[in-house]
Every structure is written in C-alpha cells, then in structure tokens.
Design a protein that fits this description.
Layout: H1 10-20, E1 24-30, E2 36-42, H2 43-52, E3 54-57, E4 84-96, E5 104-110, H3 119-132, E6 135-148, H4 152-157, H5 175-180, H6 182-194, E7 199-204, E8 210-215, E9 218-219, H7 220-240, E10 244-246, E11 260-268, H8 287-307, H9 313-316, E12 329-331, E13 338-341, E14 349-352, H10 361-378, H11 405-413, H12 416-422, H13 424-442, H14 447-453
Parallel strand pairs: 1-5, 12-13
Antiparallel strand pairs: 1-2, 3-4, 4-5, 6-8, 6-9, 6-10, 6-11, 7-8, 11-14, 13-14
C-alpha cells in the first residue's frame, strides 16, 4: 500500500484514498495569522477537487483570530459579499493523522486572485525568485511554547489568570523533567515522525512548563509547512491530553518571551554547494552571505510586522529577555537580531533570531528569505557586527525597530522593497489586517488601567 509521504501526484492521492477505503479526508489551509482552517471532505468531492480545485469562502482572508471581520481591507469584505475563492489541493502534502485511524490530511492553498494575499502563495513566490537567482533555499524553524495543566474551558473560567504550568520553576535543559514526563515527550516525538515534521531536538527551556522544539532542516517550502503543522498539532495533542500549549510571544510579564527562530541557508543550484560558505573568508562568510545578511539587517525594520504580527509580539522585544530590540547582527551572538553561525559547506547559515512563536511561519520565512535576496540583488554590505551584549550598545537610529504593531504596519506600507518582493496587493492587505488588530486592542480596557485609574483618578 502507498504511504502518505510517498504521494506526489493527483493519481497517487486518488490511489491512497481508494486503498484505505475511507469515505472522507481532511483538507486544510492557513490564514493571515497562520491559523489552520479546514474541513472534512467527502471522497467524491476530494477526487473532483484534485482536478479542478474547490471553492472556499474568502472570509478566512478577511477576518482575525477571533473571526471578527476586518472593516478596512479592500481585497474582501462586506463590499465584495465574501465570495468563494478558488483553492487547489497539494497532493504531495498528504499526511497521516495518527489519532484519527486511517484518516488523511492534505494541505491546500488559495489560487488565482486570492493567491496574491495567500501566505503560502507569498512564500512560494519568494522561493521562485530565489531559484531564478540560482539558489535553492533551506530553512529550519524552532519554537518555544508553554504547556499548562488547563483546558480551553478552565483557562477561560479563570480569565487566563492563575494558570497552572505543566511543570514548576525555571529549569532549562532538565533531564529530570524530560524523564519524569517522558510519556508526553514521546507522544510529541512520535507525532512529529508520523506527520513528517521531525524534531531534531526537544528540551525544557527557561520558565515553568516551557519546552523548545527544533524542527529538522528542509527545503524552504517544506520547512514552512512543517512548522505550521507542528504549531497546529502540538496544540491538538496537548488538548487531547487535557492540557494546553500556547505560542503567544509573551504570555506573562514574569517570564521570557517565546521565540520562533528561523535558520536559513542557500545552496548554489549549479554546484549544489553552500552559497554561504567560503573557507578563505573571515567566519567562512562568502560574499553572497554578506549581501544576504545586509538585506536582512537593512529591511528588518520595514518588514517587522510580518515577523512580529500581534500586539503581544512587542511585549517580547525588551532588553535582557533574549529578544532583539534593534536590527543588529553578530557571530555566534544570541543578543543580536541576526546570528551568523560559521560552520562547513553543510552547516554554514544564519539565524533570524527576531522571530517569535506567534508568527505565521509562511510570512516570517518569506521575510527572512526575501530581505536577504534583496541584499544580494543590490550587493549591500552589512554594518559592523555586535560584540558582547547588544543591549548595552547604542546603535544607529536606522537600525531601531518599530515599537508597536501600528508603527510596524506603517513601515510595511511605505516599504518599496516589500511591494517589489511581495506585491502591492499583499502589502496593502496585510498592513490593513495589522492596523485592524491594533484598533481592536485600543477598544479594550485592561486590568492595568482599572487598577491604576478606577478609584484614584
């Protein structure tokens, strides 16, 4: 019998469904915020959709994480009547769902006009540009996430206060924790293998109940798929065990934020050698890697809201908590926004450390790649590397990152590079969605305001 990860073509997809004798499959895609939306689809509908695609209400591109409709977007809205948008199924994305006996999952992406604002489509266009320039991009994403002995019901009943972490205290890289709770670790590892987002490393991080998972390297498009699926199904696994996993950038002011670091490298398509590695240069950094790094550094402030897409993202970016506050770079320096990792033809790469766990993997990786490619196109050179603690150094004003989501959205709107790399339609739509997010927050009265002003002012 055909295995899910052996499926490559439409014919293969039909065959595996027929061999399993299943009446339905699952089909899912990812929205602006990296949230997976989808449904069960009958076998007959699935077979038809493999050839002709299917229609999906484009409201999923016009609402936020709480299903509230944007009032400021031009792509879709009340003014368009929220029509169906064409969607294509990706046969080679076929996967087992290990806790649904025999069930298959297929990814999909928006097609035609909707492709211009589709996150996965945006990344694919960046990858195509990279390939046209003679490079094959590779990536690996790693995530920190907190686990709680809570359910969606109990967390809401508590108003998200006094939540009970899965484990107590600060205990990074703990052999005690991963041995006492080995069953959970094995469930995570087994799921990652069964669904083909294999985890290279899994360990506790600093903080109560926090884990870090490093997903194995792959070609960029596959790496983004794996990251998006990991975030989704890690939450599913936790909730099936009576727990919750959160990928908020900073769920509590008491603890460090949660990162979503992105490791990237390029290989020369003609030689299949690393385009970043040059043994004769300092830190083994090739000219291509220097230009790539310069593009990432120079465009980071302009494209920040695609990497830090929520209000909460900006709670994480404070000095001393392992999150960058300026567009800096350094060699093996974890206080910088970009970490160059010297190595060999196989391992030479750089880490986009600004990424947070709440980012949409498709868009965060789009920025990490596209900004670097722009640096290569213009042969930019990076500034001086940071040595020592980046938080203690005064940096040039042009390296300062926007401090709010609203400011970051304005920088994206005004970015000629972003419009060239991602298209006007995407920039306008995504910037509008981030402005909506900030406006929604402004309508909210916080506990801090009540405590500060209710009686005294």
């Amino acid at each position: 019998m055909l295995k899910p990860r052996e499926v490559k073509t439409v014919e293969d997809a039909r065959r595996i469904v027929e061999e399993r004798g299943i009446s339905h499959v699952k089909v899912g895609l990812f929205d602006n915020d990296g949230v997976m939306r989808g449904k069960y689809m009958s076998r007959e509908k699935f077979f038809s959709s493999l050839d002709d695609g299917f229609a999906f209400c484009d409201v999923v591109l016009g609402w936020d994480v709480k299903d509230q409709l944007y009032d400021n977007a031009s792509y879709t809205g009340w003014h368009t009547g929220y029509p169906d948008a064409p969607v294509r199924i990706l046969p080679a994305s076929c996967r087992d769902i290990p806790f649904e006996d025999g069930m298959l999952l297929f990814l999909a992406e928006f097609d035609k006009q909707a492709e211009a604002v589709c996150p996965r489509g945006t990344l694919r266009r960046v990858i195509e540009r990279c390939q046209e320039m003679g490079f094959e991009p590779y990536a690996a994403l790693e995530y920190e996430f907190f686990m709680f002995n809570e359910t969606p019901e109990s967390a809401r009943a508590k108003g998200f206060r006094d939540l009970i972490p899965y484990t107590p205290d600060w205990f990074g890289y703990s052999m005690i924790r991963n041995s006492v709770h080995a069953e959970l670790y094995h469930q995570i590892l087994d799921m990652s293998e069964a669904m083909d987002f294999p985890i290279e490393g899994l360990h506790t991080e600093t903080g109560p109940g926090v884990l870090e998972a490093a997903i194995a390297v792959d070609r960029a498009e596959a790496a983004a798929d794996k990251a998006a699926l990991f975030k989704t199904f890690m939450k599913v696994l936790a909730q099936r065990q009576g727990m919750m996993a959160t990928f908020m950038a900073k769920w509590s002011g008491k603890y460090p934020g949660q990162s979503g670091h992105i490791h990237v490298s390029l290989r020369d398509k003609k030689t299949d050698k690393s385009a970043f590695y040059d043994a004769n240069e300092k830190h083994c950094m090739s000219k291509i890697q220097r230009h790539f790094l310069a593009g990432q550094q120079r465009l980071m402030p302009e494209m920040l809201c695609m990497v830090a897409p929520t209000l909460n993202s900006y709670r994480r970016m404070i000095p001393g908590f392992w999150a960058p506050t300026d567009a800096t770079w350094g060699v093996e320096n974890r206080t910088a926004a970009l970490r160059v990792i010297p190595g060999s033809d196989k391992s030479q790469r750089q880490e986009y450390r600004l990424g947070a766990a709440d980012g949409n993997p498709y868009l965060a990786l789009s920025v990490a790649l596209a900004s670097g490619l722009y640096g290569i196109m213009h042969e930019w050179e990076p500034g001086e590397p940071v040595e020592g603690n980046a938080y203690d150094i005064k940096h040039p004003p042009e390296l300062a990152l926007p401090r709010t989501l609203w400011d970051a959205a304005q920088r994206l709107r005004a970015s000629d590079a972003a419009r060239e790399l991602f298209g006007d339609a995407f920039v306008e739509h995504f910037a509008a969605s981030r402005e909506w997010e900030e406006r929604e927050y402004r309508r909210h009265v916080s506990d801090w305001e009540l405590d500060r002003y209710f009686e005294i002012i």
